[in-house]
Amino acid sequence: MRFIERYFKATLKMKMIVFTTVMVTVLISIIGGFSLWYINNSVEKVLGKNAMEVAQKVVLQRDIQINIGKPRGEYRVQLIVEDIRRASNAEAIVVTDMNGIQYAHSAFNKIGRRDINANNSMAYEGKAYISKVSKKQEKYIQAHMPIYNDGKQVGIVLVNMVLPHITRFLTEIESGFYFILAFSILLTIMGATLLAQNIKRQIFGLEPLEIARLLKERYVILQTVREGILAVDSEYKITMLNGEGKRILGIKEDVIGKDIREIIKNSHMPEIIEKGIPEYDREHILNNKAIVANTLPINLGGEAIGAVSSFRDLTEVKNLAEEMTGVRRFIDALRAQNHEFLNKMHTISGLLQLKCYDEAMKYIDDISNLHKETLGFLTKHIKNPSLSGLLLAKYNKMEEMKIKFSIDPSSRVTHGDNEIDTEVLLTIIGNLIENAIDAVSGLERERRNVYLTINDGIEEMEIIVTDTGEGIPDENLEKIFEFGFSTKEGENKGVGLALIKQVLAGIGGTIHVESQIDIGTEMIVMIPKK
């Protein structure tokens, strides 16, 4: 193939025709050669067997046994041997005594003379065997057998069978062989042409060099993108995982061809293949790594043949967007404080205009003490700065919405070697509080209450968020953890609790819900420390 490509641009069809034609020609030649060898070998075995049978007939003749070694015994031996030779296909039968004197021979002039090759036969030593000899461009199968008379060896017999010449045999079948070869080559060319056309249709009319170029381009692109790319087939076997994907998932060995369910225990890709529904910007916990992924099924001819997912490390995304995220939270907190500050300033302005100076001073003292109390509690007991900032932002938001937010005074978040990942805490607590805010936001003011308790133990952390909302019906207690399920109207609903459930599943945590209609809902989360 390289020779062909070197001198002219070979198409897939031409390559397949040349390759298959050469292969078929070589294969038929090998089979033909082997067949000729096998036939020749079989003929040798058959002739050798026949020669031994003829020799057996000779040595069993009593007249031959007793006439070897007697004067004029050769006439009787020759007569018997000649009858046996004519009755068989033997070319020649030679009988000699132990001194090599010939008592029977196809050439009558040699009878009574000594065989010059007498000493070459092991039959004189009492051994019966078959040999192959060549004489005057002829090949013979020769049977050697000792002759005994009353238990004493008196001579030997040699039976020659002419071996058909393989060249003559090949000449006889030559025309048929060439016909079969030509017919096979014709069928091969037709088959290769049809196969090449079928393959070309399946690969969209591309030539192998074009496919190779596209694959090289794809490989370079996939290895240089800053996203992990993972692909599986319909049998959930991994067909591709780029270097970035291995780094994100912490995989070092080669996983191509392995079942994704063994490599990534909680992967959603098998479910995507079965349902055929894509997922966009979905957060997952894979191999204890928080990622955000877009996963799409691959369909061909209406049948799912696999799925592909592009994903990024959520921690890295968070780090890249840390400033923006921090600014957004800061802005939310400032916006809430600004609204609340304006309201308070208007109140103070009104009291001053009414000349209620004592009431204005008392109002200012109350606001100052409440702010110092909340900020002081968070600073003293919540040692995670990001979590403190989140709780302060939620507090200010609920102040603006006229929702009473109470944090259990016994709540603690310490800082140690087994500290829980900050992103996990922010995701769980933030979504729990947002869910509680949604539950009470539409109620009358006295029922707008949200309570938070954080018990930071040695081996696990307990988070309890309670609201005084309308409660959750029993039939919806399991559904609330499904993506997209929500009893509230609006965009981006039905995500928070589902995300919490998924995050907890990835780290071995649990969530328990207790709810009573018109009384409220309590959500208890247990996060193990590892």
From TrEMBL:
Residues 315-530 form the Histidine kinase domain. Its main location: membrane. The keyword Transmembrane applies. Keywords: ATP-binding, Cell membrane, Kinase, Membrane, Nucleotide-binding, Phosphoprotein, Transferase, Transmembrane, Transmembrane helix, Two-component regulatory system. InterPro entries: HATPase_C_sf, HATPase_dom, His_kinase_dom, PAS, PAS-like_dom_sf, sCache_3, Sensor-like_sf, Sig_transdc_His_kin-like_C. One of its GO terms (molecular function) is ATP binding. It is found in: Cell membrane. Pfam families: HATPase_c (PF02518), PAS_9 (PF13426), sCache_3_2 (PF17203), SPOB_a (PF14689). SUPFAM superfamilies: ATPase domain of HSP90 chaperone/DNA topoisomerase II/histidine kinase (SSF55874), PYP-like sensor domain (PAS domain) (SSF55785), Sensory domain-like (SSF103190), Sporulation response regulatory protein Spo0B (SSF55890). Its EC number is 2.7.13.3. Signal peptide: none annotated. PROSITE patterns: HIS_KIN. The chain crosses the membrane at residues 16-39, 177-196. GO terms for cellular component: plasma membrane. This is histidine kinase. The lineage of its organism: Bacteria, Bacillati, Bacillota, Clostridia, Peptostreptococcales.
